[in-house]
Design a protein that fits this description.
Rossmann fold; 3-stranded parallel β-sheet; 10 helices; alpha/beta; 15% strand; 2 domains; 6-stranded parallel β-sheet; 291 residues; single chain
Length: 291
């Protein structure tokens, strides 16, 4: 039986660290505040917003919400983001993506100030990942993967890690974060031949799947001794949400695995609030306590 890498335990550890930052800010009469900007009513966005809001408010992080119709113009959305930039009471901004197709996404995202970009939406934040700078923050889900692995003391330096899925919000930034920690990373995408995917996965020390394809990683992809992190969420044939990993087939084989639900997703909201607290501390010229 594999060890379960519970995201709930990691989330609690992040809560305790962030709470110390909230206490520091309260000493200066500052309330860390997250600005949430949502366009439309996509069920996944509404659900994530609900969970993120609940976690933030339980920690003492305030929420400032702006809800916009799906047909919002680029000018109107850009104006909202500019108002976030100019509002000193808002320390971090979460803009839900993907945005509607009629919007020029690069133009819209370029408006947001990097110091308020708590989910790596801007070019400056993504560049900060590569150069290990301090502009912005890494994407919350990518950061959640690293938080989870480090919490359970999974060695990264020198390890062979396969990432399945190379999207800009999870797969690609996760690969960069891992390489920054000395890991040897292989990234697979929809063009990777199934036989090659199987070969790479079997040879990995750690598999991180963020492809969004239910049941993609099965018994044939794994071997004993591996750590498997399931980031994907997508509807399965039964209409329910499933991860990328066939848990029942993989769990008896590997050394450790994340559950779904209760894995990486449980950490993401905590990271979002932690980034908001960090942004508020930075605005005050203070440091975030990593312990």
């Amino acid at each position: 039986m594999a060890k379960l890498l519970s995201g709930i335990e990691v989330s609690q550890a992040l809560r305790e660290r962030a709470a110390r930052g909230v206490a520091q800010l309260r000493e200066r009469d500052v309330t860390p505040t997250m600005g949430i900007v949502r366009v439309g009513e996509r069920p996944a966005d509404v659900s994530y917003e609900r969970g993120a809001t609940r976690f933030a408010q339980s920690l003492g992080v305030a929420i400032s919400r702006t809800l916009l119709p799906e047909q919002v113009s680029r000018r109107e959305l850009s104006q909202v983001l500019q108002e976030v930039n100019e509002n000193e009471r808002i320390h971090g901004c979460l803009l839900f993506r993907p945005l509607p197709a009629h919007l020029n996404v690069p133009e819209v995202l370029s408006v947001l100030a990097p110091e308020k970009d708590i989910d790596a939406m801007t070019d400056a934040s993504m560049g900060g990942l590569v150069f290990q700078g301090t502009a912005g923050f890494p994407p919350c889900t990518a950061a959640a993967c690293l938080e989870l692995l480090e919490h359970y003391k999974v060695e990264l330096k020198g390890k062979n890690i396969v990432i399945v899925g190379t999207g800009v919000t999870v797969g690609m930034p996760t690969a960069i974060l891992l390489m920054n920690r000395g890991a040897t990373v292989s990234a697979c995408n929809i063009f990777t031949h199934p036989a090659r995917l199987k070969e790479l996965c079997q040879g990995a020390d750690i598999i991180i799947s963020a492809a969004g394809k239910a049941g993609l990683i099965g018994r044939e992809h794994v071997r004993p001794g591996q750590v498997v992190v399931d980031v994907g969420v997508s509807p399965g044939p039964d209409g329910k949400l499933h991860g990328d990993v066939d848990f029942d087939a993989v769990e008896p084989v590997v050394e450790a695995i994340t559950p779904m639900p209760g894995g990486v997703g449980a950490v993401t909201s905590a990271v979002l609030s932690a980034h908001t607290v960090k942004a508020a501390l930075r605005a005050q010229g203070m440091e975030y306590d990593p312990m």
